[in-house]
Amino acid sequence: MTDMQNDLYLRVLRGEKVERTPIWVMRQAGRYLPEYRATRKQAGDFLTLCKTPELACEVTMQPIDRFGLDAAILFSDILTIPDAMGLELVLEEGVGPVFNKPIRSQADINALGVPDPERELAYVMNAVRVIKAELNGRVPLIGFTGSPWTLASYMVEGSGSKEFRRIKGLMFESPAAAHQLLSVVTESVIQYLKAQVSAGAQSLMVFDTWGGMLSTEKYQAFSLAYMAQVVSAIKSDPACENVPIVLFTKGGGQWLEMMADTGCDGLGLDWTVDMAKAKQRVGDRVVLQGNMDPVVMNTGRAQVAEQAEQVLSCYGRHSKNDKGHIFNLGHGIQPFAKPDNMQALVETVQGQSAQYHD
Fold this sequence. Notes:
11% strand
C-alpha cells in the first residue's frame, strides 16, 4: 500500500486492478512547453539545466502542474554516464550531443571506470531528491537510463549516427572489445539506477534507443543480454525490491517475447507495433506501455482524441489474463507539439479509458 495521492501508474506495474489507464509521456518536460523554454533560457544551456537540481526539478514539475499526468520522470539526459566517465559531453547547436573524447581504441576502453553515482553524478541524485520532495506524493517519480548498447553507441560514434559505422565495426571486428565496453557500461548503469532508487525514484525505465538497428542475433548478444543483466541486478537487490523496471527498444517490436524473458515489469512499444497483437504475445507477462505516434501531437485536438481512443481500443478490455496498459506516445514528444494537444490527450485518456476497466 502507499500514501500517494495518485498511484495508478505503480499499481498497474504491480499487476493490480485500476479504475482507468494511467498516462505519462516520454519527454513530457521539453521544448514544446513555453515555460520549459523560459527555464532553459534562464539556465543558459541544456547541460546546465540538467546539472542544476533546482532547475531540473522546476522543469520536471511543469507538465505535472499543467496537465495532471499520472507520473513524473526525472529531467536529465541519457548521456550523463559517459560524461561522468570522462568523455566530455557537449551539446552543439544544430548537431546534438557530441563527445570531445570518444572511444577510439582498446586503450580508451581499458581506461574506463565505473563512476560513483554519489560523486561524479551527484547532481542527478540531488535532482531526484529535490523532485521527490517537491512531488510530495502527488504522483510517482520515474528514474531512467540509456541502455548499455545505446550508451556504448554514442561513446564509440562520438555523436548520434545514421549508419553506426564505428560501433558496428567494433562489434564485428573486435567483439571481445565491444563486450568489454558493454560490461563496464552495464555495471555503471546498474549502480546509477540503484542510486536513483536510493535517492527516491519509485520506478525505472531503460531507453534502448539504438537496439532496433541490430539484427536479431546481434540484438540478443549486444543489447538484450546486457539489459537482462540490469534487470536481474535491480530485481535481486532488496533495496529495489518493490521498484518496477520498464524496457523500451525503439524499433524492437519483433523481440517483445525475448524482452519479456528478462523479467522486467513492462515493455514500451513504439508506434509501429500493433497493440492488440503485442497484448496477445506478451500481455499476460508484462505491462505494455505506449504507443501513439508522436507526430499526431502536431495536428489538432480532434485528431489527438481520435488516435488516443484508437490506442485504448486496440489494447481493449483489461482482464485478469493480462497485466495492463500505461498510455504513452511511441517515442518522445517532439518540440513542435502543441501544448493544447497534450491537454487533449490527457483528458481523453483519463476520461475515456475507464470503459475498458471493470
